[in-house]
Write the structure tokens for this entry.
Amino acid sequence: MPVYNAERFVEKAIRSVLNQSFRDFELVLVNDGSQDRSVEIIEGIQDPRIRLIHNEKNMGLARVRNRLLELATGKYIAWLDSDDYSEAGRLQAQFDYLESRPQTVLCGGFVRPFDHDSGRRQRVWKYPTDPGETRVRLLFDDPLATSAVMVRRNIFVENEIEFRLEYPPAEDYDVWERVAQHGEIVNLKQVFTHYRIHANQSSTAGRDREVESVRKIQKRQLDRFGIEASEAEREVHLLFGMNAYQIETSFVDAAEAWLRKLLEHNEKNAYYDKQAFQNVVADRWYRVNYAGWRQGWSALRRYRSSDLARIKGARRISPGAFALRCGFASFRRFMMKPGPWSGTV
């Protein structure tokens, strides 16, 4: 657990680990030069499983995580940020899964975000649970929540994998993509972590640096995939990775063409599991069009007009919520048009 000026959150995070149903672990914390009461709070919690290490000055999250990798001695490493907290059964579920499946190198799970100020819980962040689809999703974006991950320590040690400083703030995406080269990665259908949303968290900053980092991570995967991509196609792929879908017709058309090109390439070389790839492509096409629901029925018609909405064998996507939103948008636009019902009486 990395700790930096977390006096408001760290005790809850620590106790959520100490109260796990799985008991055989060490909790390693690195204090990254905190200037608040974080250390005092940690030292006030008496449990022999706690190891607190201090950095003389603030080193940053990637360096702290690398130091934690060096300090860890267990068979598995589970991560938790100091402003989040875990469900009590998390470690047991992940330990049991990894013990029973030696081909799996990483086990993640779902996340429940909540607002720090109001305490209001938000919709669960669900990630792909099929190993094949999780691997395909890495081609587009990061399908894992680091604060909900457990990974085999030997994967880091034997392959000299660490969090690299040249990928801020997408070091997690970079490291999990490299870990995935050594075995299956999977998310279980369980909420493992509660993710606190507040103004000070580092994940809300550095958008420009993130764009460049994601671009580099995607490029090496596309190159390994063996597909030739123009600069324009790479830019479309980048928008997939940043979840920044555009509603302009030109983007939707370009996205359809690029997804079809990806699908056809994988059909030829079978680099990824074909069914998993089809499922992910179908899902991406749905998301591209869903982003334009405010355009009304035209967005739904555009989605259905493509054969990507009818990929043979792909998991069926029900556009119910999409259709409702499109219908609402069309009705609202209709009611805003001048007509006999408008004006003053």
Observations:
- Residues 226-334 form one domain.
